[in-house]
Design goal:
Shape of chain A: globular
Oligomer: homotetramer
Number of strands of chain A: 18
Helix content of chain A: 25-40%
Radius of gyration of chain A: 21 Å
Largest interface: A-B, 108 and 108 residues
CATH class of chain A: Alpha Beta
Strand order of the largest sheet of chain A: 1-2-3-7-4
Distance between the termini of chain A: 30 Å
CATH superfamily of chain A: Chorismate synthase AroC
Structural class of chain A: alpha+beta
Number of domains of chain A: 1
Chain lengths: 359, 359, 359, 359
């Protein structure tokens, strides 16, 4: 219940940053789809640490092992369990922080909630848990693609004050993957890369925005009252470490508009409905229209920085603290596949929910 | 599953805009709390149509009837069902729109999803359903207050381009309720009131932002991975009609910061932990810190406008359409109690979730 | 969560024996099916009190009101809420028992669980709540029949020591409804009728067994591990007041067999699989085979009897107690539609669960 | 959803008989309890194959590995994942049955449900999956014992026509474990042991009954309408492979009684309520009374037998089939810890559900 996501396509994760392994059980997998293990591994590679000079220096190959649910390379309908062993988990790194509640981290709140916490690398609160979501999300992505040709693509659209200038309709996976920032605007990408490198040297960190767009989402996904498409996507994104906001279509800009400026006018062409604009981000009344679903996700800057900060021990004593553990100066580039994965999980779950009542 | 919200404190709603009634079943209500019916009715009065010249002219007294779960003015632990009869449901009003898929509305997507739809006043998609959330939310508010002295207060902080200038720490319910806009900055309130009146005359509508703040939330609420406090609040807010975005604490602004500018430094005082700033909006690692929980919700402008717009019939024929039904030119003032109600439902549900594992 | 049943086709009930009303919200209803209100009312009539001399003398017409989810006599996909007002709720009847924890009743356990209880007619624990299940079940039955021609039929097969001798394959609704006992063996029915009448005069009560059989259940319903067809049916039946056991197919008899005597041999005929016997009751590995699903449900005798019994007050004082409230000397005849209803709810829910993953 | 059990204490299992591993993720574990790994292993040892001459000859050490959720030998509140590698999985054994739908097995129904199946050792339908339940159940048992001193004890009370004669109040774990049958009546145990040995030689199999009793269950567990204690226990037991029935307290016998013979009279002694008899099996109105909770579970004889039986291929061709795979002639002795485990899971889940609303 607490570590599971989804109603029918259900993803349950386990594991701590410095425990033996991180893993996931994916339930509700429809039977008979090709199980594309190399694709799942390649998605994990997009998230793994050490992939470029912009990321943490923790060395993890994040090799996935499949434990169940697949027979002769096809899904069987049984739950798919997948496991990644932690290799480079140096508990020693964290000995010094066992007695510190780091600012911006979950140390304080886990301690208050449970009366205990696993301090090594943040324990369960570590973003390392998100590799399990990427494994599950890659499976969802693959099924969505085989079944409905749904495409999900995210990219870094803003870091600190640098904004990518792109037309979402023209962004491709190749553009996104052409640089370590995962920003499809090459000029912005270069500036961001430089900025991250400099900020890392300063011992500081950076926030930013990821944009995610999905194509070929069939109309009708999302449940009208509480299970709206944007509500599920919001639930998914706001469950990702460091996320502080989400907006759909024109989002907060729409709040500054009049109705006549914001309504998307509907027309009929080629045997289907379209809208002339897509201010709504492909969602009306909580249900997909068939237009691209598009949204922005805001990430705060990484909490761990090398600059010295005031903090406290669990007993309330004041201490100064400067992060020396391995961390990303900017999580955005590695968060791109996480955003895509959670989107895939939501869409497949809503597709199955929708389908349950078709006759 | 589809029309229910919450895991333990579970709210299930039913009813259509022009059907016989709107109602709600609230399950998981802890036994032994005072049941404050006048308070529930007063919260419904804050949402009801026709309360000022800024709202729709639909006349509904929204008188609540309690059907179960209360014995001698106390909750018994049994589900509390509450019902409001629809009085002023003029189906005739909507005869003309039976054959139109209105821009910005759920007409298109319900039709695509179900192959059918109840066109009268939007049927199930109507924001009239939210009265059921306010009834349930008022019950949750009352229990949170009796149990933990939790305070929830929302207000209109922005409409179109007019922004309230307030210090959240100083906003009171009296300030919010002192004007029909529900904006605690009296200067902004007057400007907004004028703007809404003019926009209504133009036959147009306006979007805006509601800010919500809760005090006395005990630390420890929220579940660490998928059930984060901000994820549940996001799920709740993005399930409200016309909402297009949400941000916590400094939200999208935090994306433009460095870590050293954004971390909230922790200190110990009066036997408890505090943070010097509250950029995070009272949430770390998805769990409440004990500081005020604060977030902003973006509403798009009302989709129904009197200006003529291009549209289509369910058969795909082009038509022009101008709204003549009763509607709010700006939903924000009436949405304030809805935002508060969903916040209360989330907090009580997370409190019960948290409590389930205490020993 | 606590007062809801089902994962996709979800039934939530509310109301107390002597409160204003009993009601139900049915969510996950597939859109586009005919809504057969007269059939729902006729099912409630099979359960209502006072229908024969064998039942309680409480007078309730149990007239159903539909509040939502239906447009032009078809289901819309929105939740269907239905309500029955309590008319003949004489709280006075129960004044004397406010201070008694009646043997065999939920008085003791509600008091221990909640620290409070609604004593009037048993409050929420009253079997009057089951009318809400019959309303929801009748809707499920009607949809199952329209969609898949599924037939559900239950009957009284045993009361006290009198056993009906019937061939399940030959039992019809007409046979069941031909006598007030709802026993398709006319000889047993007459004996049981006499026995119930005599037992009522004695101030005593009787237990018995209901058999339920469903035809045309498509193969594949039920989820393999925890959501087995027999597990869901067991969960449903063991949630009915006074039920103390359930067995599928040959049930407890199968425990006294060898494998060679109990296996149902499979063969192929008319383009489908069959089994030569049906010891398993139409279920293998938790999933329907396509053969009739058949099971027995054991009911204890009604707890309320007119004979004097030893009991206690909530304070622990000993008292003698003899029931004078209105009650059924044998609940079996009225429980037949309840068993059928819960079966229908389970089957439709599992059909929707199964369907969610078809492609 | 499909492979998970429980609402708050949630058990999700994965793995196939002949896949790489069987595992479980246990969520909702309260933080701060001692994690007793040797106890969990000892419970698995009670279930493991090859423990006596009465069981299958498959050789599995069933060594448990803990992957998460434990820090310094205490639970942290994070999910506990546990894994057992399959060692002695000879797929070759089953090559011959790839083309046969074995009588009494899930082969037919998995094939009809999914259009595919993993034939090796029954794949996901194999009772080998239950080791994951025993691991989770052992954790639940340990927590229940640390927290509330709850004791759960099951035993074989009947095999074929041989019945144990015991007083449940006097049965101890030592008595149960004193013989390979797990029957606390030594005379019956000897007879059953002989019978199983002979039946194995015949190539046949045997059914039977397991009785389970729990002590120190606090009053108040179970939710009144659909989540009754007996409903959850029934759901749990009817989800165990080969189970065909369950009864609580006097169960089916109660159906043959009058109310005056069946009511348990309540009295007050030593500051608490008791009942003079316990026909109800410790449950009233679906909620525990504080008396021992006791129930019987009926198991059909093992479906795999060495005697030749008529069967079919997935294409519908008739074939004869005689089991040669390794299997138990009688599953009862190894099922005892499974019944105890599922009971523990239900009780802990209901304890957490109950606790969520205490104030």
């Amino acid at each position: 219940m607490f570590n599971s996501f989804g109603k029918i396509f259900t993803v349950t994760t386990f594991g701590e940053s410095h425990g033996p392994a991180i893993g996931v059980v994916v339930d509700g997998v429809p039977a008979g789809f090709a199980f594309d293990l190399p694709f799942i591994q390649s998605e994990l590679d997009r998230r793994k640490p050490g992939q470029s000079s912009l990321t943490t220096s923790r060395k993890e190959e994040d090799q996935i092992e499949v434990l169940s649910g697949v027979f002769e390379n096809k899904t069987t309908g049984a739950p798919v369990a997948m496991l990644v062993r932690n290799i480079d988990a140096k508990s020693g790194d964290y000995n010094e922080i066992r007695e510190i509640l780091r600012p911006g981290h979950a140390d304080l709140t886990y301690f208050l909630k449970y009366g205990t916490r696993d301090p090594n690398g943040g324990g369960r609160a570590s973003a390392r848990e998100t590799l399990a979501r990427v494994a599950a999300g890659a499976l969802a992505k693959s099924i969505l693609n085989q079944w409905k040709k749904i495409q999900i693509l995210a990219w870094v659209s803003e870091v600190y004050t640098i904004k990518a200038i792109v037309n979402p309709a023209e962004v491709t996976l190749e553009m996104v993957e052409s640089n370590p920032v995962r920003c499809p605007d090459p000029i912005a990408a270069t500036k961001i890369e430089t900025l991250i490198t400099e900020t890392k040297k300063e011992g500081n960190s950076l926030g930013g925005i990821i944009t995610c767009q999905t194509l070929n989402v069939p109309p009708g996904l999302g449940e009208p009252i509480y299970g709206k498409l944007q509500a599920w996507l919001g639930f998914a994104m706001l469950g990702i470490n460091a996320v502080k906001g989400i907006e759909f279509g024109d989002g907060f800009e729409a709040a500054k508009r009049k109705g006549s400026e914001n309504n998307d006018l509907i027309y009929w062409e080629n045997d289907t409905f379209h809208t002339r604009t897509n201010h709504s981000g492909g969602i009306l009344g909580g249900i997909s229209t068939g237009m691209p679903v598009i949204f922005n996700v805001a990430f705060k800057p990484t909490s761990t920085i090398a600059l010295e900060q005031e903090s406290v021990t669990p007993e309330g004593q004041e201490v100064n603290f400067a992060g020396t553990g391995r961390h990303d100066p900017c999580v955005l580039p590695r968060a791109v596949p996480i955003v895509e994965s959670m989107t895939a999980i939501v869409l497949l779950d809503l597709l199955l929910q929708h389908q349950s009542r078709q006759h």
